[in-house]
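Need residues for this backbone.
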């Protein structure tokens, strides 16, 4: 049985906007297992970013539970959530979110401060990470002195700083040209091959096609969850899906044979 890392159990999230209520997520259940490579695919406003924030403990659901390593973290105070979040997940955003006044090296070293890693060690690890992402000749550059693709590499290095188990990326290629976007996807493929667990929010079908699982969401609900056959064998049958779904063998996006589950 493959280990569950993050489990969302019937989570809902609503935002009260004056008199009206926006239901961003509606009783959504989804489990992230060790070494999953998942894309969350859906139109703008379908709840993808909200979902990623729940997985990454950046926000708490209005109802339902979030489990990390089997423990319900839904009721924990923010300082405890922050500690779990820092070790467990690394975030990558569409707009990079680097600190403009810090160099590439300093941006990557920053997340290690919460765990009191000594400065020399922080810088050494940051340098190694940047070198591994072909950014060794840009260590002292500020974000404003880097191209979009280079900024995203810095952001990927930063996401890896505390060696998190799970990488959560929100439209990571949304601000990149297609060639640079492909380079980012190829970095994700390598991270997955190296054992990382990745969840990539996207509305780019080319990225979705690369991953082992595609979760389609619409109006805050999972409407389809496709798992490729390769993946389902690795994951011990791939039957780890929301209760009572029918599975049938199908093509995964016309490429791989897989198990496809449709939620009605
Ligand atoms: P996506 O990432 O798929 O575009 P989001 O998760 O950002 O979708 O948003 C889902 C819905 O929730 C949208 O209707 C959006 O307007 C609404 N929403 C998201 N964040 C907030 C917020 N902080 N306050 C109010 N409404 C929000
Ligand atoms: Mg979004």
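Answer:
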């Amino acid at each position: 049985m493959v280990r569950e890392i993050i489990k969302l159990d019937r989570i809902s999230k609503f935002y009260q906007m004056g008199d009206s209520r926006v239901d961003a997520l509606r009783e959504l259940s989804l489990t992230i297992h060790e070494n999953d490579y998942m894309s969350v695919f859906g139109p703008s406003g379908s709840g993808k970013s909200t979902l990623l924030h729940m997985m990454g403990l950046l926000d708490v659901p209005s109802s339902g539970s979030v489990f990390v390593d089997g423990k319900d973290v839904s009721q924990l105070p923010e300082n405890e959530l922050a500690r779990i979040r820092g070790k467990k997940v690394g975030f990558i955003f569409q707009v990079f979110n680097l600190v403009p006044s810090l160099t590439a090296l300093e941006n990557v070293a920053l997340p290690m401060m919460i765990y009191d890693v000594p400065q020399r060690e922080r810088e050494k690890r940051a340098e190694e990470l940047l070198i591994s992402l072909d950014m060794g000749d840009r260590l002292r550059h500020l974000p404003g002195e880097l191209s979009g693709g280079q900024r995203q590499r810095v952001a990927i290095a930063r996401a890896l700083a505390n060696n998190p188990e799970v990488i959560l990326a929100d439209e990571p290629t949304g601000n990149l040209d297609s060639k640079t976007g492909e380079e980012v996807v190829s970095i994700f493929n390598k991270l997955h091959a190296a054992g990382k667990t990745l969840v990539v929010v996207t509305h780019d079908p080319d990225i979705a096609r690369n991953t082992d699982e595609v979760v389609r969401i619409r109006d805050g609900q999972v409407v389809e969850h496709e798992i490729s056959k390769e993946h389902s064998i690795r994951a011990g049958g791939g039957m780890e899906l929301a209760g009572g779904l029918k599975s049938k063998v199908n093509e995964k996006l016309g490429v791989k044979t897989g198990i496809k589950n449709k939620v009605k």
